[in-house]
Design goal:
The complex is a heterodimer of chains A (644) and B (88). Chain A has a domain at 281-414. In chain A, 30% of the residues lie in helices and 16% in strands. Chain A contains 16 helices and 24 strands. Chain A has helices at 29-40, 79-89, 96-115, 158-168, 245-253, 347-352, 368-374, 378-381, 386-395, 457-475, 485-496, 507-521, 528-544, 554-579, 628-635, 637-643; strands at residues 3-5, 15-25, 45-48, 65-66, 140-141, 151-152, 172-174, 177-187, 190-200, 206-216, 257-258, 264-265, 292-293, 302-303, 343-344, 360-361, 403-406, 422-423, 430-431, 444-446, 525-526, 590-591, 605-611, 614-620. In chain A, the strands form seven sheets. In chain A, strands 2, 3, 7, 8, 9, 10 and 20 form a seven-stranded mixed sheet that branches. A four-stranded antiparallel sheet of chain A has the order 19-11-23-24. Chain B is of the alpha+beta class. Helices cover 11% and strands 18% of the residues of chain B. Chain B contains two helices and six strands, in the order ββαββαββ. Classes of the chains: A alpha+beta (644), B alpha+beta (88). At the A-B interface, strand 1, helix 9, strand 17 and helix 14 of A face strand 1, helix 2 and strand 6 of B. The complex binds flavin-adenine dinucleotide (FAD). The site of flavin-adenine dinucleotide (FAD) has 42 residues of chain A, from helix 1, strand 8, helix 5 and helix 10.
Chain lengths: 644, 88
């Protein structure tokens, strides 16, 4: 093994105490917007980001669709209509609060991004005259060209633009710094969040930050079931930095979560199981509505929701007769009839009719504007596509006018997985909040993909800004608390422990063991006996493997901390699964020891939190958020007035 | 005081390679990488890809590189999508 001296400063045991009005943990699009909202309101803001803000998070290198921009000047739908559609579509296991904020304020955030220097419209008239372009505003639309509520955007410009704005607003950026624990204080009114402990992942320095309010924006868990020690970075769809630390520290501190029993059979992962996202021929998401052909070059028909064949490319972008609008996008797979848009003939039917595998996307048969929108704009601005897909395939000679790109699997998954190879994907569980995006703990707010049932960048931006705004407002009435020294010392001991173990266990070995545990005891079909066995084995690993973990530098230490967090998330998932006693279709939750599926008494949000270390179950009715418009307008008069 | 050591961790794949004749050793790639897979030891020389297995293949390093062609980005062989000539 080649060894090098560590090039960064050694700041082991150095500790800096800081104070700030608003502390934001996680510098993806949600966290950046939270910090900007608070700083615009004159607050002192610290933003803690484990990577570097310029390209961190799932949207670090871009995204191509901005969904549910219902208030853009061309939109023909209302925020109320689209929120209701999403809630219905997800059988009410949906985050009505976050969706409404997305629908209502999303376009304001897009306008902000343009103000910060991001590109949101076709200013160079590259697509002049295209059917999906509004000639007056130069905005470009995707999917439903009649209703125009999903925009095609130049997402690769967004993170650098956000970074510039953070600097302009003098937000204190602590990059290469992982948040590891939330500081809390038990007051007569209950427990409240008072800041966080963090560690620099290059130097080992500890930051103890006291904050009046804290915003959690660390996205969602990963590497729970899917792990490849040779290619850790390709284990999942999301960046390897995002493994659910925010969930783990929240769970330890007593933050309430819901839907943690939901997981889906793997859809998107790349570690040998799938071809890189968006680099395969398909007709979903970024690639909607590519012309698909079979191995002989025979075109695969698109059908409307009633099974009528569509004759032209243009028809793929319009609702059916009598349908107001249709839904497509990140979380929409096979929507209900009411919201279903045009789609290629079902796979089984194609097989019956003699269509031959493999299928391909053949953009050469599409009108030039549509071809260029998919190949060049969408593939290019979509996350992980500018270099990895557009650049890579172009370099290898791919020309969309001459070549067709192979499709793998039957849809946009670009791979096939086993039932026990699961992921938190497709609007998974997360933090449940009130209408201020405040968690059950005063002083702690949450946004973006750390919220339950979230999935999209526009929603992350909108909820980020909203949480930052509410956290800023609340900070006016809050005093600082002195951090509990014993807690801080304990945390530092926990963080540094692997440095003092020589020849111990590598974090990869433990991550592999945990994901195998989850595949074995919390796979596609659950039952109490297996879930309890899983908890037992997890405890055994805590006692026997965790003390053996060894790391040689702060980078390895960070990866080791990730696995400890993965264990906490696995524990939360196992407990949440034990709490749901019947199977549930919308939650992709199947039990072998119950013959009931979605009985009336179980159609609710089951919540999980720890109270003084004890795992505690709660229950919240599905439509707890009430009428979104009324609730939103009650609480956001100032914002509404200011925008006028 | 404890000394930190960096150890190259082998992976079956090589996501990033530098063309030493083009790389100016500014290390902007290493600073832009959210996963921190590279370490820049000496200005003027390319960084060392210390943790190739942790690469997320997002391409941020190439996006930030000021010299075209200084970084070669490559998917693992099994992840090279197949394309063929159109048939019509
Ligand atoms: C390839 C790809 C393409 C996508 N395309 C689209 C699209 O076209 N349209 C769309 O709407 N959505 C898209 N999405 C989804 C979208 O990117 C996410 O929903 C969105 O980025 C979520 O924002 P976030 O800020 O909540 O999380 P992220 O953007 O993931 O940011 C989370 C941040 O928290 C940091 N972090 C994690 N743990 C810690 C810790 N312990 N301490 C400090 N920091 C921490 C991470 O480093 C990261 O920067 C795509 C996702 C991917 C992966």
């Amino acid at each position: 093994m080649k060894e090098y001296r560590w090039p960064y400063a050694n700041e082991l045991n150095e500790k800096e105490y800081r104070k700030t009005d608003v502390l934001v943990l996680g510098g993806g699009v949600a966290g950046c917007f939270a910090a900007i909202a608070a700083a615009e309101r004159g607050k002192n803001v610290i933003l803690v980001e484990k990577g570097s803000v310029i390209h961190s998070g799932a949207a670090g290198t871009g995204f191509d669709h901005w969904e549910s921009a219902c208030t853009n000047p061309c939109s023909k739908v209302t925020p109320e209509e689209i929120t209701k559609a999403y809630v219905d579509e997800q059988d009410h296991y949906s985050n009505g609060i976050a969706h409404y904020i997305e629908c209502r304020e999303g376009y304001d955030r897009l306008a902000d991004l343009e103000r910060f220097g991001g590109k949101i419209r076709d200013t160079e008239d590259e697509f002049a005259g295209a059917e999906f372009r509004d000639e007056e505003t130069k905005l470009l639309f995707a999917y439903d060209y009649a209703n125009k509520f999903t925009l095609r955007v130049w997402g690769s410009t967004f993170k650098p633009a956000l970074l510039r704005q953070l600097k302009k607003l003098n937000v204190t950026l602590l990059e290469r710094t992982e948040a590891t624990a939330l500081l809390t204080e038990d007051t007569p009114e209950g427990r409240r969040g008072t800041g966080a402990v963090c560690m620099n992942v290059r130097t080992g320095k500890i930051e103890v930050i006291s904050a009046k309010t804290t915003v959690l924006a660390m996205s969602r868990p990963a590497r729970i079931w899917l792990y490849n020690p040779d290619m850790t970075g390709l284990s999942e769809f999301r960046p390897p930095q995002c493994i659910g630390s925010g969930h783990a520290m929240g769970y330890r501190a007593g933050v309430e979560f819901t839907m943690m029993e939901k997981s889906v059979r793997g859809e998107f992962s790349a570690a040998g199981r799938s071809i890189p996202p968006y680099s395969t021929g398909n007709n979903h998401n970024t690639w909607y509505a590519a012309t698909m052909v079979d191995a002989r070059g025979v075109e695969i028909p698109y059908l409307d929701r009633d099974g009528n064949e569509l004759k032209t490319v243009s028809e793929r972008y319009y609702p059916a007769k009598g349908q107001k609008f249709f839904l497509k996008g990140g979380v929409i797979d096979e929507p209900k009839y009411e919201y279903r848009g045009p789609e290629t003939m079902p796979f089984d039917e194609l097989m019956k009719r003699g269509y031959r595998l493999p299928f391909y996307a053949d953009l050469s048969r599409m009108p030039e504007s549509e071809r260029k929108a998919i190949w060049g704009l969408m593939v290019g601005e979509e996350g992980k596509t500018k270099i990895p897909v557009y650049g890579n395939l172009t370099e290898r000679g791919f020309d969309p006018e001459k070549h067709m790109l192979q499709s793998y699997g039957t849809g946009w998954q670009s791979a096939s997985f086993l039932d026990q190879e699961r992921q938190l994907f497709g609007a998974p569980g997360g933090i449940i909040t009130d209408w201020d995006l405040k968690t059950n703990l005063d002083g702690i707010y949450a946004c973006g993909d750390q919220l339950f049932a979230m999935d999209c960048a526009g929603a992350a931006c909108a909820t980020g800004y909203y949480a930052g705004r509410k956290a800023a407002e609340a900070s006016d009435t809050i005093e600082f608390f002195t951090p509990d020294e014993a807690f801080v010392e304990n945390e530092i001991r926990r963080l540094y422990a692997p440095l003092y173990v020589e020849d111990g266990m590598d974090w990869r070995e433990l991550n592999s063991a945990v994901s195998k545990l989850m595949q074995n005891y919390c796979g596609g079909v659950k039952c109490d006996d297996l879930l309890k066995e899983g908890l037992d084995l997890l405890n055994h690993y805590r006692k026997t493997a965790v003390p053996q973990l060894s790391a040689k530098n702060p980078h390895e230490l960070m990866r080791t901390h990730e696995v400890l967090d993965i264990m906490d998330v696995a524990e939360m998932i196992l407990h949440a699964c034990l709490m749901r006693k019947s199977s549930s279709k919308p939650l992709c939750f199947e039990r072998s020891d119950s013959d009931q599926t979605d009985p009336a008494e179980d159609q609710r949000f089951i919540t999980i939190r720890t109270v003084n270390g004890v795992v505690t179950e709660g229950s919240i009715p599905l439509d707890y958020f009430n009428d979104p418009k009324t609730e939103y307008e009650k609480r956001n008069r100032n914002y509404i007035e200011d925008r006028k | 005081m404890m000394e930190f050591k960096a150890e190259f961790i082998q992976s079956s794949n090589h996501p990033i390679r530098f063309d030493e004749t083009k790389c100016i050793g500014c290390h902007r790639c290493a600073e832009a990488c959210q996963v921190d897979v590279m370490i820049g030891f000496e200005k003027g020389k390319p960084p060392v890809v210390m943790y190739p297995g942790e690469c997320w293949y997002c391409g941020a390093c190439v996006m930030e590189c000021p010299v075209e062609g200084a970084i070669r980005f490559r998917h693992p062989l099994m992840n090279q999508t197949k394309f063929v000539e159109v048939k019509q």
